[in-house]
């Protein structure tokens, strides 16, 4: 067992009853349902689950995104997170996923094992963006897919958050630069979360504003968008082709 794995090993293998997590509750709100719908739609366009054998979900929490891959019975899903409480809750929700306590910056896996990797709403907690992207790239097979999302520090919403003393970690420009340095190719991108509400809002006009966001083309303005999703690919290995 590597150093990081050992440090992160969750002490109790017996899964006692664990309450619903904050993020599970957030996903049930109107805002949460809107965000999950946008993210799930983008992911299912990016990844053909009938062709993916091994999927890695980085920062899986209690499994919201892992469940998308688990719905495909032939896909093996490995879900990692640094938070043992969330992983215990996830274990309670499914026996299907391989759930591992690990850090995105030091993945305990060999090179080139996964067909697809998800990093959804997790890079916002990792200042070392380049390290996490390098680890993701290292463990992905060539010609394979990564889908990631992040809050855009350069957006107007981030500036408003900044006035309250909080903001996002990464800007659209920095993520583009680090993706390029890591040798990822950008296949698709999408901007979202333009709605003027927090993560757990139940405001009744959310469905209407979500429709407008799409209808007026805000999802194409990635550079200025509050949240951004990228579908990127690790290129084919030139040496072996
Ligand atoms: C907002 S939650 C997102 C969970 C899930 N990806 C989703 O979209 O529903 C962020 C998760 O990232 C995890 N996380 C933060 N830093 C991490 C790191 N360095 N390595 C692995 N997971 C991390 C947190 O513990 C938390 O469970």
Structure overview:
With 241 residues, the protein is of the alpha/beta class. It has one domain: 3-Layer(aba) Sandwich (Rossmann fold). It is 34% helix and 20% strand. It is built from nine helices and seven strands; from the N terminus they run αααβαβαββαβααβαβ. Strands 3-2-1-4-5-7-6 form a seven-stranded mixed sheet, sandwiched between helices. It is globular. The N terminus is likely disordered.
Question: Summarize this, please?
Answer:
This protein is α/β, with parallel strands linked by helices.
Record keyword descriptors for this entry.
7 strands, about 35% helix, seven-stranded mixed beta sheet, globular, about 240 residues, Rossmann fold, alpha/beta, about 20% strand, binds S-adenosylmethionine
